[in-house]
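*** Residues and shapes ***
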Amino acid sequence: MALPDVCEQEVVHKIWWKILPFIFVLFIINILDRVNIGYAALAMNADLGIDPWVFGLIYGIFFIGYFLFEIPRNHILARIGARIWLSRIMITWGIIVVLMAFVQTPFELGIMRFLLGVAEAGFFPGIILYLSFWFRERDVAKSYAFFIAAMPLALVIGSPLSTWIIQSIDWYGVAGWRWVFVLQGIPAVLAGICTLLYLPSIPGDAKWLNTHEKKWLEQELQAEQEKGTLPRHIPFFEIARMPIVLVLTVCLFMLYFALFGIVFWLPQIVKSFAITESVFSIGIFLMIPYAAATLGLLVWGWHSDRTGERLFHVILPLLIAAGAFVADALILNSTISLICLGIALIALFSATPPFWAIAVTGISPGPRTAGTAFINAFASLGSFLGPVIFGLLVQRSNEYDTVSGLFVLSGALVFCCIILWINGKSWYNRKNFPNDV
């Protein structure tokens, strides 16, 4: 029961404004450091002699290190606390990003990308676990959707920022693409230090909650824990046998396969259209679809929350993205082709919040955190294969002839929709997806 002198709405409001904006900024920095290689490639590939297939492999190998270490890292966070562990993750990845500026060969770059994946492993599911320490079940899905919105917004920021650095900075005779890694790696180190100083690991450590508010929140969370609604440790093989986890893992694998298969090739594709010779102009141009994707993600997620429907809100945008990829492959006009790619990006990002709402509310409460970590870890292999296969198909055809690659991405999304629809009907129940999720 709530304490008489505690205002529930005020406590929740404090948590939203003290925790989520800070976490939101951390995720923006995380995404910037993960994708900046796609912009650096506009000049880096020529300097290091990297062909399309090798570039796809170098980018994608990040997710191998990420996959291998993601699940065990989440358990470490639960033991030693979010403040220390998230700080360690950010400082380590920031240092590795800075060191990427000094590579001299494609092999060295590949090694650094793998190590970056190892360093970042545990950050994404760790944040999900951390949010469950602060938000009750009725609030955690909303906080998660807000957190996800940082992904396309980071691309809005990263497109002009990275390309401006490449084009405008050559301090000490060092190529601009090397400064991209230096100038975007340092903020991660600083953010890690700020996390160590600012971020409370649990409600009891929060200086901005008074004693009664801390006690009330702990009572609320404890009540959910006693009902089995807070995360607990679940054996790996028990998670792997859960049908909903397997279905969602396959579907997210396909979604990531398509999304990252195109996101990290998009700067190269735009460059190949010869719309502009300016690297910075390419970055400005790419802001448009990513800004639209940010808005689309928020609006579509809000509509899914309002209607309480999830399955249709995942399948429809994925089908739209698949159709846009096919249209792009068949249309020769560069302007219309870019519009199709923009529609595909908006649709793919828009499918993400309702997908994770299915995971958050569809997986039974006890294994929820372990299940979402499992889904994200194995689905990250799709993030590896998407750029690699797309790059291989590009190299086997004419340079940046993306027709075959686009058909493969489209096929993956259609397969995802079929699997989700066939299996989703068996466990989908509207009462599991209430309007207040």
